[in-house]
Amino acid sequence: MDNLKRRDFYYDLPEELIAQDPLLQRDQSRLMFLDRKTGEVRDQYFRDIKQYLKAGDCLVLNNTKVIPARLLGVKEGGSAEAEILLLKRLDKDLWETIVRPGKRLRAGARVQFGGGLLTGEIVEVKSDGNRLVRFSYEGIFEEVLDRLGEMPLPPYIKHKLSDPSRYNTVYAKIEGSAAAPTAGLHFTEELLGELREMGVRTVSVTLHVGLGTFRPVKEDNIVDHVMHSEFYQISRSAADEINETKREGKGRIISVGTTSCRTLESAADENGMVEATDGRETDIFIYPGYRFKVIDGLITNFHLPESTLLMLVSAFAGRENVLRAYGQAVEKKYRFFSFGDAMLLL
Length: 346
Hints:
- By secondary structure, this protein is α/β, with parallel strands linked by helices.
- It is built from six helices and 17 strands.
- The chain has two domains: 6-66 and 163-345, QueA-like (3-Layer(aba) Sandwich), CATH 3.40.1780; 70-148, QueA-like (Thrombin, subunit H, Beta Barrel), CATH 2.40.10.240.
- The longest helix is centred in the C-terminal third of the chain and has 13 residues, at 236-248.
């Protein structure tokens, strides 16, 4: 599969199908079921997912929490507006970031937020253009960020989010993401409770989603694309439960989202057994030809044309199957991307 081209993952998407707002009720989004063996497609609603799950199945959730990582401020010594987007915490007050406008924010530049409640100094410009920024403030950084920061919505969402909690899952717990694991946005506490009553296990792992998720593939030959690394961790109890499900063979491992999938596949040995870890980095890039070691099913949203996420889904269910299903989703006016509808691939 080394000859796959970026254009092999292109599909035409009318702009009006890009969801700009979350639905009133999380589980009222539509659900497209795709049988990855036959290519059969069924149209349902997300709450109908109970029909496809059974006792013994294990849903793997990513419990990362999106922080208000978008900071709007003013360059010190003038009135020029500046934006800093937090990507990854490297030390207590040192962050890897994306800044705008990049040309004006070189090493040594300082940006003030909230009239001086928070100050960021550019300490290094990385080779990829990202900046290392050291922050100074009074009090607790997370509290300052809650006061001054905004949710870092993807660039294709133009509407302002009236309820910031809707860009987090109901089970979000560990702060650190710059983007939401959007497949999980469809679950409600009630639906998760009903699934547990059915005997479906739920296990949490953590992968902090970086904006590399939205970074376009620029290389024509996709194997030349370099993924940005992201932090993940898996507790001993989570690893044990996942491995027990695999060993027993009575249930399926179903990944809620591409982030949970990448976490599991990064942590697995050749037999599909998952190793617990307090924290590692992964830059795994999954595209057609990849042999999945852990997951048996995948819940995911509809992804951007030519994106690494669409390539991952194509690796799991077959490129032709997936692009055919996407074509039907466009015809049937499904809602696309972060606040859009979902797919279940089994």
